[in-house]
């Protein structure tokens, strides 16, 4: 009797183990249909109202900056190149010839140490490096921040130069030309910055 019970119990265990086949892992990443269904549920892979195809939900929410390369304002890259060259030249002049640079603008000898002019050249060189990097990027936000930094520099330089001219009580032609150029550069820079900040109109 004991043997029969043991045998019957063993048979039940054998039937139970045979009724459940081993689980097989399904590789959903290689299943094309499953991937298409998932992308359709997430709402990616198709075109939006602007005709842009998003590859992920993140790009759909944040936007795709790669498309900016085909719709950038006319002359933007040329303006960034001119700015980069100008900042680099002024930085090198301030670092190498600080006294001469000061004399050209204010038409008088530098009464204080030339360390301040060289520090000014170092700051200009840092901005120039940002300009050169911005020239080769396609990220809209990077270009916007670069233009904003350039506009801030032109504004500060205009104010500092104006206050200095008022303090020394002279108005050299070179300083007037510098102020006018800074106003012009500020207007152009802010125009590009405003153009990049506008949202494209939907047709």
UniProtKB/TrEMBL annotation:
InterPro entries: TP53I11
GO cellular component: membrane
Keyword line: Membrane, Phosphoprotein, Transmembrane, Transmembrane helix
Keyword Kinase: no
Subcellular location: Membrane
Region annotation (Disordered) ranges: 1-25
Database matches in PANTHER family: TUMOR PROTEIN P53-INDUCIBLE PROTEIN 11
Protein name, per record: Tumor protein p53-inducible protein 11
Annotated organism of origin: Takifugu rubripes (Japanese pufferfish)
Lineage: Eukaryota, Metazoa, Chordata, Craniata, Vertebrata
Encoding gene, per UniProt annotation: tp53i11b
